[in-house]
């Protein structure tokens, strides 16, 4: 008996398997449902549907239009559209009358769970610890051995928290990740004039600050590296970067230009929503009127470089852009310091067959496929991992359906979905 026959007895084989069931791979599975042989089967390490749990608090909203759901930009008639979700759950009228500019994050998380349930192809509680290649197929290994084989795999593993070097490797009581703040606060008594520090000047940092204000904290320090707590640029011209036509232009640029453009475009993706900033400034202003003191002290232009704990108090040292250091202390420190790509669980043997760039990252082509030795027969694709290669739309939800459509077209080697983006008034090249 050959090795492959033995494996076939034990684990199922899929034409296309996805690792991770976040919006990226759910979108792919939704668009591939009727066209990919056997559909796209997803392996997800979580025990059930969830999308950034812990960051779905009251007032948090999507920074992307709901029209940019899992499918609509490529296939508006797909049964897994947000509109169909709204109609079939019977909430469409209530939703419209609530007059949201952007939908609550909680609603988006529920939409993803609904789509996942309808797909029925997500294997929850299935962490893939390693992908190997043997006998002409990918072997997906879980903690207890092989769980499946596949002809093609798509990595949609998302991101994980990026912890500043001074916190890495040390356990300090009272230091929590942003997504743990809710559960942490539920376990500690609220002492309004106790100091709390939030590190990170982006949207998540701003939301943590607001959360603390709303829970009665009255001595909050908000530390950010930029020279101001910068709003997201949502102007029409900035949104031109999130169009398929621009994406194609961007992918053809030399690497050095792409690097510069990504750096310059950061605030079209990573800034704070204007509404969140306004609510925060107004909360500070009104607290001053009522209590004679503003609860939030904003400390931009500072990088936290040292952290230690003494007698239950956390001491932080910050380097200032204009020179010198300053010390801040608190009993609660929240890390909202960004996210970085999750590592690809690829076996060392398979890794050796991949083409990598100067930084050791796999080379990702315009169809999101990874360049590797046997890609003619068995392909690997990767979503949300290549900012410099594919622009800032890659880590975002904006072109989710478009990226999935490109991958489906590439997998099936024909144009299943046409991507039309005409009436472009900005001339890129
Ligand atoms: C709070 C928050 C709000 C955001 N809001 C927006 C927004 O409004 N608009 C926007 O454009 N972008 C937004 N983003 C950025 C981005 O669009 C989201 O992070 C989005 O979820 C990325 O989708 P994804 O599928 O690539 O990754 P994820 O949503 O992170 O999904 C990856 C999945 O892979 C699973 N996984 C990881 N490793 C393994 C493994 N080894 N085996 C099996 N499963 C694994 C994870 O459990 C996870 O469920 C937001 C990000 C955050 C943190």
What would you note in describing this structure?
- With 429 residues, this protein is α/β, with parallel strands linked by helices.
- The chain has two domains: 3-158 and 342-412, FAD/NAD(P)-binding domain; 175-232 and 270-336, FAD/NAD(P)-binding domain (3-Layer(bba) Sandwich).
- Helices cover 30% and strands 21% of the residues.
- The chain has helices at residues 3-10, 23-32, 82-89, 92-97, 105-119, 181-187, 203-214, 236-239, 244-251, 255-264, 274-291, 348-351, 387-390, 400-412, and strands at residues 13-19, 40-43, 122-123, 130-134, 137-142, 145-155, 159-161, 175-177, 195-199, 219-223, 296-299, 302-310, 313-320, 325-330, 332-335, 339-341, 380-382.
- Strands 1, 2, 3, 4, 5, 6 and 17 form a seven-stranded mixed sheet that branches. It has a five-stranded parallel sheet with strand order 8-15-9-10-11, covered by helices on one side. A three-stranded antiparallel sheet has the order 12-13-14, with no helix packed on it.
- Helix 2 packs across helix 14.
- The chain binds flavin-adenine dinucleotide.
- Keywords: FAD, Flavoprotein, Monooxygenase, NADP, Oxidoreductase.
- Belongs to the lysine N(6)-hydroxylase/L-ornithine N(5)-oxygenase family.
């Amino acid at each position: 008996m050959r090795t492959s026959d033995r494996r076939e007895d034990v684990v199922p084989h899929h034409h296309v398997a996805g690792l991770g069931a976040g919006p990226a791979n759910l979108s792919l599975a939704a668009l591939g449902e009727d066209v990919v042989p056997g559909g796209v089967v997803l392996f997800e390490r979580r025990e059930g549907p969830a999308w950034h749990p812990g960051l779905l608090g009251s007032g948090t909203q999507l920074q992307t239009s709901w029209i940019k759901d899992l499918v609509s930009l490529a296939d508006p008639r797909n049964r897994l559209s947000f509109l169909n979700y709204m109609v079939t759950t019977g909430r469409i009228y209530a939703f419209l009358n609530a007059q949201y500019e952007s939908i609550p994050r909680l609603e988006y998380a529920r939409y993803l769970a609904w789509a996942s349930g309808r797909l029925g192809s997500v294997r929850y509680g299935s962490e893939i610890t390693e992908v190997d290649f043997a006998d002409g197929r990918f072997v997906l290994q879980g903690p207890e051995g092989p769980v499946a084989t596949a002809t093609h795999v798509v990595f949609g593993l998302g991101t994980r928290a990026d912890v500043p070097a001074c916190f890495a490797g040390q356990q300090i009581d009272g230091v929590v990740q942003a997504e743990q703040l809710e559960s942490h606060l539920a376990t500690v008594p609220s002492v309004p004039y106790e100091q709390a520090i939030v590190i990170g000047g982006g949207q998540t940092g701003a939301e943590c600050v607001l959360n603390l204000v709303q829970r009665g904290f009255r001595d909050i320090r908000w530390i950010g590296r930029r020279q101001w707590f910068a709003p997201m640029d949502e102007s029409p011209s900035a949104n031109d970067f999130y169009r398929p036509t621009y994406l194609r232009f961007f992918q053809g640029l030399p690497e050095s230009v792409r690097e510069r453009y990504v750096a310059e475009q950061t605030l079209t993706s990573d800034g704070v929503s204007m509404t969140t900033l306004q609510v925060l400034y107004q909360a500070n202003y009104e607290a001053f009127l009522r209590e004679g003191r503003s609860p939030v002290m904003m400390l931009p232009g500072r990088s936290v470089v040292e952290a230690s704990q003494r007698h239950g108090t956390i001491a932080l040292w910050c380097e200032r852009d204009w020179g010198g250091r300053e010390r801040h202390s608190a009993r609660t420190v929240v890390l909202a310091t960004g996210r970085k790509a999750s590592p690809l669980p690829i076996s060392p043997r398979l890794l050796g067959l991949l083409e990598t760039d100067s930084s050791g990252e796999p080379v990702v082509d315009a169809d999101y496929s990874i360049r590797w030795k046997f890609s003619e027969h068995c392909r690997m694709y990767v979503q949300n991992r290549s900012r410099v290669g594919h622009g800032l739309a890659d880590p975002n939800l904006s072109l989710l359906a478009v990226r999935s459509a490109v991958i489906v077209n590439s997998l099936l080697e024909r144009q299943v979905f046409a991507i039309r983006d005409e009436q472009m008034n900005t001339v890129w090249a």
